[in-house]
Amino acid sequence: MKAEKTTNRFKKLTQAGFSLMELMIALTIVGIMAVVGLNVLRNQTDDARRIKAFDQMRQVQNGLAEHYMRYGYYPELGSWEAMISASSPLLLKNFIPVNIPVNDPWGQPFEGKSEKTKFELKCLGRPDKGPELGPIIMNQDRTIGAPGEVQADDGNQRGAPATAEPETAPQ
Predict the structure, then answer these.
(1) Please, is 113 exposed, middle or buried when counting C-beta atoms within 10 Å of its C-beta (0-12, 13-18, 19+)?
(2) CA distance 23 to 15
(3) Each residue's pLDDT tens digit, 18-60
(4) Residues 60-99: pLDDT tens digits?
(5) Separation of alpha carbons 20 and 12, rounded Å
(6) Which helix (H) or strand (E) holds 128?
(7) Domain spanning 19-155, CATH class
(8) What is the dihedral of CA 79, 83, 86, 88, to 10 degrees?
């Protein structure tokens, strides 16, 4: 009778808990979910940085446009740093806020220059991630590489909102 009690106790102990194989499968599933989750988080971080860079560039672009509307020309500034410096006409006339940084969210310097009739602003983005995180270029006529827009290898924009053709009245 004592032998039966010992055997029953042993069966109960071995049946309670998980086998090594079950634990390994569970850990593998958790590991796969963690890898997928981290990749999604990393992509969201890059998207947020791109939007932040675009917004910072848009502030300078709007300041340049406001200067042009008021005075009829763009200020002659040879670099991004000159555009956002304390002595910049954009800052002195309150066309742009004080806190615009020199570097983009990836730590690379913004580029920019303006002449009396034109300007160009550029953020290199994160070119190692492909066209969706490539450069953002703004000038007086257009913006290339806005968030949500993908640059194709041929230089054409993809993913930009479609513009409707103006309707003409039948003749």
Answers:
(1) middle
(2) 15
(3) 888 889 999 999 999 998 888 877 778 888 898 999 999 999 9
(4) 999 999 999 999 999 999 999 999 999 999 999 999 999 8
(5) 17
(6) none
(7) alpha beta
(8) 110
Q: Give which of 58, 74, 66 is closest to 121, Cα–Cα.
A: 58
Amino acid making up residue 81 = E
CA distance 125 to 151: 12
d(CA 48, CA 53): 9
Token code pair at residue 151:
């640059």
DSSP bridge pairs for 139 = 120
* pLDDT at residue 58, rounded to an integer: 95
Please name the helix (run of DSSP H) or strand (run of DSSP E) that holds residue 96, with its range, or none.
Answer: none
Between CA 129 and CA 143 the distance in angstroms is 20
Coil, strand or helix at 165 = coil
Instruction: Name residues whose C-beta falls within 8 Å of residue 131's C-beta, 6 or more positions apart in sequence.
Output: 150, 151, 152, 153
Question: Tokens 């290898």 identify what position?
Answer: 153
Tokens of residue 18, six digits: 């998980």
